[in-house]
């Protein structure tokens, strides 16, 4: 960690013999020491400075000390060093009271200690800090570079980044942790603050970064990559104000991680092309070539299942991408391909239900094909596509086999089915009694006696109505096709 020159280091230096009277803000960093005998030195002072004075122009002051200290406190002065045994034998009580009131440190400088000695010591401490910071920064960057060479172990680099501050992690665009967290203060990685920052910068791509204060420290957030939309972000947490050396080390880490991220994306794109080709081969029935291709690409991890169900999904590109990454991370799930807002999964039997549940939970529509031997994947794919076309906002998942079991109306497109019913029944619509007779006739499997009893009319009336129906439809009710079409039209009309 980068060292800082704290007020305590100066006060505790025995060679100077300084005597604290208002001993506050010891842990704060000294910026410089300045000497002034002005009655209002505030225009010439700044944040973190120590003011050295003999009080030469303040002889006789009483109430004036309050406004004097108030002005220098307002510009950020850290402490006052008052030389004693010169203008004052000891610090005036009013000065002590004012310093305590405005939280400004006060110490006495003995006569044998010159202001030059105090200033030189501050300068030496700052120079030592600068040299130490430089060495620490070089050591951190060397450690980061060495960790980055171990690309197969990204957690090593995140651990090295955590040592620059107090904690670090890699997160996705939604804030979910991908690698880590690492470090001694992982509690600083506040999930709500990270999610809020991501919402602000996500749409600004790789040029965006964010810094935010959290309870107990500060968080920096940087996107990773060199092209396209960021898929990963580096989050680093610090207990105190981030120094320039720490920022420099984080910039180095971002550059190393971005290079690694680009290589990871390139490897992933190559693997996705192989998997997409394997999906095409499986659906085409060429399981042998698909098996060889997957074995070569996946190092033996990817294998063709013996029984599969094809899943077809549709939804927002960002949701498809997230689902694709999830399926890819589970080698046993199946073989997957995605393009233009749709994804195809040739899923192994044991993973079908879990995949369907996960895809639906992500807000995607899912069509599920039949469970078949892998050689019949084409049939399952065709069924999955038809099932996907039947999905709606209120019915996100359609399993083709369940639809078939519920009847042909379940798997037909509702708009086309409605248009078919209207056109097929149009000749009968002017005479409602003909529609009722046709419905009863088909329901009773062509029994005119049961139609007569059902409708409470004479059998001769039933016969006349059936003749009229056949005339208007220009088709015989003895034809199975006519009966099937009529029943489908009447059921669609009823729905």
TrEMBL record:
Gene3D superfamilies: PucR C-terminal helix-turn-helix domain. Residues 434-492 form the PucR C-terminal helix-turn-helix domain. It comes from the Bacteria. It holds the Pfam family HTH_30. Residues 28-125 form the Purine catabolism PurC-like domain. PANTHER family: CARBOHYDRATE DIACID REGULATOR (PTHR33744), DNA-BINDING TRANSCRIPTIONAL ACTIVATOR ADER (PTHR33744:SF1). This is Fis family transcriptional regulator. It comes from Nocardioides baekrokdamisoli.
